[in-house]
Target: DUF268 domain-containing protein
Amino acid sequence: MITTLFIQDRNNLRGSSQSTSQIGSLEPFDSEKSKHIDLKQFNVKTHKGLVSMEELNENVFKKFGYEIIRPSSPVPTVRMLNEPTCDEVFSEWQRISEQPQPEFPPKEIPSERLDEFLLNNYTALNKWYINDKNSAKGEKPRNWDRLSELIKLPRTKLGGLAYGVDGVSMYDAMHFHRLDGKSGFVVGSMQPWVEVSALVHGASKVLTVEYNNLTIQEEFRDRMSSILPIDFVKNWKTYAGTFDFAASFSSIEHSGLGRYGDPIDPIGDFREMLKIKCMLKPGGLLFLGFPLGTDALQYNAHRIYGSIRLAMMFYGFEWLNTFSGQNEQPYDLTSERLHSRNLFGMVQNTIVLRKL
Model:
């Protein structure tokens, strides 16, 4: 059975949401116009080659609870057929997170779940196994006691602390979209360079949602705090709709792959996006950095996001711009640029989205 985000009453649609993922500044969704769009005329690059949007709409998007409403490029614009409520989103996440987990991250995708992980074989697969749950070599939090040093670092040093020029793209995005007086949260953070980048660009308060317990330098505890994901979820109503911005770099692409001891969940990343959407104020910004390329999964290391999966990730948001870290200004991420690398090739840029 294909996993969808029809969290309750999966077989009976409760009415179609009009919210969409919008690529750039587009006119409002018109259901009558969308019926007359010939999706056969528009193609998307996949590991299989060029595939028509009509084929993807029938074999992927509708199977996972979405449908194309506009053949935008490089990412189709979609809507959800049956959007779950925030209460359903967080309840289902908590249910999955509380299921018993194996001692070590699974080395193979369960055969009965391959279609879910690979979007019905429109996502390429190869193996790259990492145990960051209980391996002595697993990544651990660091530099949380050096915040007073980090906040003095220049652009390339702070932004490049963890991911080189790719990380600088987050710094540039926050410089372009200043955060003066705004409060936000960061999803997943081993080193606090994203949090410090937000403070440098005016943020008043930053909450980090992280599986590890963090010891924040005392002088910064009036501006920075942390919470475990399970506690964030259990208390979601306290936070819902209160944040001006959210940020995540090299985190969400791991959700549901088990690498960090998290539950195996083929749509774990979609769930994270819906959780973020629930937490943001209308018009709130999401600074999102993860691997971009042609749709692929290197199990269990990470996902690589191409035109297909991005469409579902962007649901409920407007795509404002993209930053590479090589230039302080945003650039145009065209289909050619998105798919310019060989299969499993990738770059981690920062995409800025605005909640609709």
Q: What stands out?
A: Confidence is low (pLDDT under 50) at residues 6-20. The first strand starts at residue 22 and ends at 23.
